[in-house]
Amino acid sequence: MIEGMSNVDLLSLAIVLLALLSLGLNLLIHRKYPYRCLRKNDALLDAEKLMHAAAEKGLRLTIGLGANPNNSVPAPASLAGLPVLRLMTMRSVFNDRPAQALSGDGALASLSQLIVRGKYQNALATELFKPDFGLLAGAAPYAYLAGLLPEVNYRANAGVFLIGRHRPETLLAANLADQKGIPLVAGSDELSTQAVLFATNARLCLGEDALYAGAALETDASAAAALRAQDWLRVLAALGLLAGAVLKLLGAWP
Amino acid sequence: MKKTLPILVAVLTAVFILAALILRPQLNGWLDVVLNWAVVTASAALLVAVATLLLTHLRAILRGQRGFIYSIILISAFLVSFIGALVLGLENSAYLRWVAAVQLPLETSLLGLAALVMTGAALQIFRSRGWSLLTISFGISALVFLVISLGLLQALNIPLLSTVIAYLQRLPLIGARGLLIGIGIGALLTGLRVLFGLERSWGE
Amino acid sequence: MNPMDIVLGFIGIALSVMIFSYLLGDNFFFRVALYILVGVSAGYGAAVLLLKVIIPRLIEPLKESGTDAFWLGLVPLALCLLLALMLVPRTVRAGTLPLSFLVGAAAAVGIAGISRGTLAPQLLAVVNRFSPELLLENSAADWGGIVEAFFILFGVISVLFYFHHRLSRKGAGTQRPLLVEGISDVGQVFLGISFGMLFVGFYSAALTALIARIVWLKDFILALLAG
Fold first, then answer.
1. Do residues A133 and A247 both lie within one domain?
2. pLDDT tens for residues A200-209?
3. Buried b / exposed e across C141-171, counting CB within 10 Å, b at 16+?
4. Predicted ipTM?
């Protein structure tokens, strides 16, 4: 089987196996204190403070979970906002104004409804649950932005989170929040969006940080293990690049 | 059982698709079947989400909630475009022209509006993010690429300048590669967590 | 210009003006335009999915009773019916199974796509810069190319380490190891350069859209005046 495989095939297989091994080992090694000695993302720490402030003031938090460009199955990176939604819903079940989730595709909208409903059930408050706590903002990326903007400017908003797959036009939401003095925490896996939002006042999760909200908020031990695995893979990638460069220079790698 | 069944479904689906992708010729037919199920389910999820959105706005109208006028506008726009497609057909040129006449100006105007907003945003970056290696290199890079994108320097036709510009244009690829590798590893690990039943996006 | 073009043109102008009215602050007209976009997109999107996916891929196979397509069609039918139950607040949890199926499929497609489509090609692109065919010019070393290849290698590694999360156990455990901290400082510079270019790239695209809108408006008015 290996004979018919290209360099890309072999390397991708090796990456997946190494990732599996790193994740498994980190789950095992750090099962007692999963969150110890991990750098916290400032934006996500701010997010936690916002959740407390909203609960105290009886205000609402809004989270945009992003949009999938072609409304197919959601990419793993587009699930990034769900841990934040879990925590903010848990903290706002009995609030006057519960958290509001908005999505740009059907699967994410339905997942957000399931999560919110689950939190209400856990709190034995299913009668307080309303389907509009997890809504579709728009059925296409621009429509998602259009549906998001009025909710950003909602009069009782304590803060806005935009975590998941967002387009650079999300800048308009950041601008609106800034105009109204509403704090905004953002994290997207799209490079252009990160670059554009970098020029705003938004608290930003750069690079892969948005994918590890569960580790930063200390709500998901497996996310913390994945974060440690990411560090291992980072070192392995660096060593692999150095070794690959030397082998290539020596002509030992075809 | 209530909690394990969804995990089992997610894990088995993921394992099957991965196995089928590796053993492509043998399992090709079944892979197509499962991916077709996924496409149909994702489409149904969107239809359900649209229905929930409409019901929410309908309730807002019936209760006369603050801002219900927007709900009337949304539902009217939905009905016109949805019923239009059902009656005239999706390939009908008049229908397509109408949809384009609404969507195109709105989308391009939103993008154009972003340009105007960005101009102001870029000017205040040092006030909002302070002075650091990151902000300084961002500022210099944005300025340099803005000048390059105007095309005036290239028009001078100076060979040395062209070499420098070509080199400068390759420079951002370095950071982008590093970022893509980092985000790629993160997304891969998220996928593996689902595969292990550790990430339960559907659950509380 | 026929009457239809004129009507659609005026709709376009009105909607554009409504969007640009945001420059005066979030207002009624801006919101009306946004809700129209949400409504039209939802209507069009729902019609496309219904007519192009649900009917041909779900309903049609179920009409062929007793065939393989019929039996295989029962699975997505069950998944869709469970999803439909989500419309009733009391039965929202019925959507768990179809959504766990979707998340599983997404994970598998993601793992394959990311490892083969992003990670492997990006890593190989850095290593391939060291290929002797690229670094030799007429059997002599191309020092410019060699320096650039090492520069790229070092740059990519430094950006990778900018996001390193593990903190040093020494001291209060609040700082990253010194080496990582040093490399990540260099990473910041490369990151800033990339962000700067991406910012300008999007700015140019947005500016082009703005200019295109203005040009369209000018052409429409001229065509209207010309009759």
1. no
2. 999 999 988 8
3. eeeebbebbeebbbbbbbbbbbbbbbbeeee
4. 0.90
